[in-house]
Amino acid sequence: MKIRNFIIKNKSFCFFAFLALLIILTAVFAPVITGGVSPSEAVLGDALKPPGKEHIFGTDKLGRDIFTRVIYGARTSLAAAFSVVILIFVLGTVLGILAGYFGGWADAVIMRIADLMVSFPGMVFAMAIAGVLGASIKNAVIAVALVSWTKYARLARSLVLKIRNQDYVAAAVVTGSRTFSILRRYMIPNVIPTLVITAATDIGGMMLELAGLSFLGFGAKAPTPEWGLMLNEGRQYIQNASWMMIFPGAAIFIVVVVFNLLGDALRDVLDPKDE
């Protein structure tokens, strides 16, 4: 009964959560969905075939099945996007809580570093870092994470500054509660919901940034099935074989929209102020 009431009350969230789950399951069961076809299997005789019965999304310049590469690309793109979000969530939250609670030199150092990071255009800075580290999906994740954690740190710090002045926190300090206990019992539980909402809405944005790096040659390397890289490979054939860009682009669009709307719906569920 409780589950049914939750679904009725939060129809939008449940709908987009279901779509997000389908996308994740598609990535997990890619070998089953594609019938065991390898995304790197090249058949030069089938190069640049348009969508049809044999290849429903067509083939690329090497005769690789684009449907297979798009499905396997979900694995690469989702794994990379989730990795970035987890990294910036953990790093930004920890640094923000430390800066907000302890203040002083810790706050000054962390916030000055954050100010330095946001003073550069994020994508340009990520390209510079990825260029120094070398082109790979792993380095692209590191580059995007290094320029994106500041939002979480600033948000966590602002929330902690509000909570730190509450009476129940002062009472805990007076009664001799340890710092770690105060952080665990009062700070983290009050900070996490807002940051989780932010993380959910960031999944789509991080995927776009990673796809952008791969498109520009700073991310995934061939023959990795990654949507941004597939767009790069298809751009020179956009007039004669437009399907090489249409399907990876559509995959990025659908996933970004679904996760953005899921984040908005999650905010309605977790934020009691909207009720």
SSE blueprint and pairings:
Elements: H1 2-9, H2 11-28, H3 30-33, H4 66-102, H5 104-118, H6 122-133, H7 137-148, H8 150-164, H9 167-174, H10 179-215, H11 227-234, H12 243-270
Short description:
The protein is mostly helical.
Task: Describe the 3D structure.
The protein has 275 residues and is mostly helical. It has a single domain, classed as MetI-like fold (Orthogonal Bundle). Helix content is 73%, strand content 0%. It contains twelve helices and no strands. It is globular and about 75 Å long. The two termini are 21 Å apart. The model has no long low-confidence stretch (mean pLDDT 89).
What labels describe this entry?
single chain, 275 residues, mainly alpha, MetI-like fold, globular
Could you tell me the number of beta strands?
Answer: 0
**Fraction of residues in helix:** over 70%
How many domains would you count in the coordinates? 1
What integer is the average pLDDT? Answer: 89
Q: Please name the CATH architecture.
A: Orthogonal Bundle
Number of helices: 12
Helix-strand topology string: HHHHHHHHHHHH
As a whole number of angstroms, the C-alpha radius of gyration is 22 Å
CATH class: Mainly Alpha
- Form type: globular
Biggest sheet details = none
- State the secondary-structure class: mainly alpha
Which regions contain 5 or more consecutive residues with pLDDT less than 50? none
- Assess the beta-strand content as a share of residues: under 5%
